[in-house]
Amino acid sequence: MPRDSSREQPQWLFTRHRALTTRQLLRAYGLLCLFSTAIAAAFALRGLWYIPFFSFAELSLVAVALLYYRRHAHDYEHIALRDGVLIVEQVSAGHCRRISFSPWHTRIVVPQGSRQLIRIGDGAAQVEVGVFATPERRQQVARELCALLPDPPP
User: What is the CB neighbour count within 10 angstroms for residue 46?
Assistant: First the structure.
């Protein structure tokens, strides 16, 4: 007998807000390099040779910051209730952490403050999610999870 395909399996996805694509990031950095190098060259022609060193240091620090931004641009958190298992997946800088919980033993702590995260845990493991969500969205998702999961045993 085929499975009932009309039953949805709930899931939530929290992603980091990305303002720039990789191409836009490279273009912006290229323009910054061009502008900064032109100014440093003008000062060097006037005999101020230390200005290009500061310009190079500035461009190096901006490059490090942009590499950090690019590395974390695709970070996300995914919560799914599939086939009787609550799965929490967190990706940060390309490293994936996946934890599975039994819904019958899982406890959800609804965040009360604006800086608190959703705490999901059972006796063995615990994880906090909602870093990329607004406080209102965190509370909404936590309440939805509480409504979907059975009450844990005392």
Answer: 9
In three-state secondary structure terms, 144 is helix
- The stretches of 15-124 forming alpha helices (DSSP H) are 22-45, 50-71
Residue 101 in tokens? 């919980």
Query: Cα separation of 133 and 80, whole Å?
Result: 16
Average pLDDT, the chain: 89
Which of 94, 91, 103 has the alpha carbon at shortest distance from 129? 91
Give the separation between CA 149 and CA 106, rounded to whole angstroms: 8
Element (DSSP H or E) covering residue 139: helix 135-148
Segment 31-63, tens digit of pLDDT: 999 999 999 999 999 999 999 999 999 999 999
Q: Which residue ranges in the chain fall short of pLDDT 50?
A: 1-6
